[in-house]
Amino acid sequence: MKRIIIIGATSGIGLEVARCYLKAGWQVxxxxxxxxxxxxxRQSALGQICTQRIDVTREDAxxxxxxxxxxxxxxxxxxxxxxxxxxxxxxxxx
Length: 94
Prior knowledge:
36% of the residues lie in helices and 21% in strands. It is of the alpha/beta class and 94 residues long. A 4-stranded parallel β-sheet has the order 3-2-1-4, sandwiched between helices.
């Protein structure tokens, strides 16, 4: 079985990628800051998904990522999809 680790899987692109890999039958390890969202995702695919709360701005992030990789049984693909953005209205052509 193939395994993917996704950081930033509680919303947006990370969440949608996680759903796609779950549908494809992969073992999925997901991480994010929001534990409630991680738990919802875990409940949607029991036995196929491992979760870990990780805040990439904290010093313990690498150790927690290693724990998630171990829980997932390894890693074939890694996706980092965390961060924030803001709209730059000066780029809009009106």
